[in-house]
Design a protein that fits this description.
The protein has 14 helices and four strands. It has 360 residues and is mostly helical. The longest helix is centred in the N-terminal third of the chain and has 31 residues.
Length: 360
């Protein structure tokens, strides 16, 4: 730190000054060969003290203030996050394609079992006050999109509670905040998407996600939505890494805003004429297309002006990914999943008597 050298010099000179004062108040009398040394005159004594101070300064030169240490801004540190972003995004969409295949297969196989279970449930006497049944009724009353984001909301709530445990503070800062200057670079890109330190921040993000859940899941399906959401969290964090490294404004970030911006941008791009409203001002409505333009303009301004309250780079990265995916990514990625699904189908149906072949 720049002020450290000044304090060291000030303390050292003060110590020398105090030592010289002590030598005046308490003159040191040394004995040599049994004879007492004759006291010197005041003038010679002052000259001796000044010579002693000069001698000490020559032996102990003044310390120069150390230059402040800043984390490296090398773009070479972003190679691993880039590889992680590409690999995680590919794995997310691959796993989503396999998940969709297994879900369809399970629905076909369990169709008659569900019909029989419903028929038997009607014959049995109904229980009143059964907590499990009430929970099932509430769960069945939710839309598919709301059921899909419930797990995300629960995960965010659990991470929020972990922030309140003092023993976990060091691990939370290391793995649940994203910072290009940190030693841990890759996994925080994903984990920070589920991390909120402020209750208001988490409540606002989860409310927006809950509000757009039905639209986005009806648009993409549950499996594709999960792949897009998780990939958006990593991609938006990588964009934040790049901007922080380029501008030198390093610092930790956390929150699901980047991934939620992808959801918001995807819905607004697909349905630009849909009417939206602010929760506190429901009487004022505006189109989804205009809302997206205003949000992008605000985050662009914040990024240029260097506002530090929000991670505007992550917001922009999420919004651009959401628009790109609706316009091009769905055709480029999701509609080309058939070779992977066929490969998985052949692997699942391989066994004795099957011959390793089958049809979708």
């Amino acid at each position: 730190m720049a002020w450290r050298g000044c304090i060291v010099r000030w303390v050292k000179e003060d110590f020398i000054f105090q030592t010289s004062q002590r030598s005046r108040l308490f003159p040191c009398h040394q004995q040599k060969c049994g004879f007492r040394k004759v006291a010197k005159r005041a003038e010679s004594k002052k000259e001796a003290e000044q010579a002693e101070m000069l001698h000490k300064r020559e032996l102990n030169p003044q310390m120069e203030p150390p230059t402040p240490h800043h984390p490296g801004r090398s773009f070479g540190r972003l190679v691993k996050p880039l590889v992680f972003t590409v690999g995680f995004t590919g794995c997310s969409f691959g796993a989503a394609a396999i998940w969709q295949y297994e879900s369809l297969k399970y629905r076909v196989q369990s169709y008659f079992n569900e019909v029989r279970a419903d028929w038997l449930d009607k014959l049995r006497p109904q229980k009143h006050g059964d907590l499990r049944k009430q929970v099932n009724q509430w769960w069945n009353s939710l839309s598919e999109g709301q059921r899909s984001v419930t797990g995300i909301i629960v995960a965010n709530a659990l991470v929020f509670c972990c922030w309140r445990i003092p023993v976990l503070q060091h691990a939370m800062v290391k793995y649940f905040t994203s910072d290009p200057a940190s030693k841990a670079l890759c996994w925080p890109m994903l984990l920070s998407t589920f991390s909120h330190y402020s209750l208001l921040h988490m409540a606002a993000n989860m409310y927006v996600l809950w509000s757009f859940s039905s639209s986005i899941v009806n648009l993409m399906g549950r499996e594709q939505f999960m792949a897009v959401y998780l990939s958006a969290g990593v991609i938006s964090t990588f964009v934040s890494y790049v901007c922080k490294t380029a501008t030198g404004r390093l610092g930790p970030s956390l929150g699901a805003s980047g991934a939620i911006m992808t959801v918001l941008a995807a819905v607004c791009t697909k349905m630009p004429e849909a009417k939206l409203a602010v929760i506190f001002l429901p009487i004022y409505t505006f189109s989804a297309g205009n809302a997206l333009k205003a949000i992008v303009a605000l985050d662009t301004t914040g990024l240029i002006m260097g506002w530090r309250f929000f991670d505007h780079a992550a917001h922009l990265g999420g919004a651009l990914f959401g628009m790109w995916y609706i316009l091009y990514g769905h055709e480029l990625i999701w509609k080309n999943r058939e070779p992977l699904v066929k490969l998985w189908h052949n692997f699942r149906t391989r066994g004795p008597g099957t011959g390793g072949s089958g049809s979708l």
